[in-house]
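Lab meeting, item 3. Inverse folding demo.
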């Protein structure tokens, strides 16, 4: 298989961007009709897999991103190791799970579910770009609501929130 000019341009755009971008915008930049963009991404991904290349083109909801294949995560993690890349603590994972399964949620909701103060953990998750403000609720004090980010989806290799693992029967994601 040889890439056509539109597919080559799409790959160049995604490589240069480095971050997820709307598939429609990437397609427009590459000159691919919007209705053909998803198929072009699939063809490129198929080529990478069939030829054992260390890349993939990931569809993340309505966004698309060129990234390294999961098999190379360890070597990339080691090469990019920084203080901000440290693994999340158990407390941070708990708070992140509460947000992911119940979003948008307030810090008070996370604290109610976890039973402990979660202000520091929530700030850490915001700093790491895993959660973000989703506006303020129309209630006394107008508390900030939080939701997960596209960076969260990338970190956990999830195309969308619908792909979160199911909560097991007998367990609850919230009160």
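The presenter then showed the designed sequence:
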């Amino acid at each position: 298989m040889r890439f056509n000019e539109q597919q080559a341009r799409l790959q160049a755009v995604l490589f240069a961007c480095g971050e997820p971008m709307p598939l429609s915008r990437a397609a427009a930049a590459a000159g691919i009709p919007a209705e053909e963009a998803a198929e072009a991404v699939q063809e490129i991904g198929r080529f990478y897999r069939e030829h054992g290349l260390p890349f993939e083109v990931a569809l993340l909801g309505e966004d698309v991103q060129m990234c390294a294949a999961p098999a190379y995560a360890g070597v990339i993690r080691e090469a990019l190791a920084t203080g901000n890349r440290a693994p999340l603590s158990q407390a941070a994972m708990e708070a992140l799970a509460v947000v992911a399964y119940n979003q948008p949620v307030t810090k008070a909701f996370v604290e109610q579910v976890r039973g402990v103060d979660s202000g520091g953990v929530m700030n850490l998750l915001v700093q790491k770009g895993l959660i973000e403000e989703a506006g303020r609720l129309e209630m006394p004090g107008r508390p900030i609501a939080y939701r997960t980010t596209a960076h969260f989806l990338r970190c956990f290799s999830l195309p969308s929130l619908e792909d979160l693992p199911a909560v097991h029967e007998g367990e609850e994601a919230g009160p």
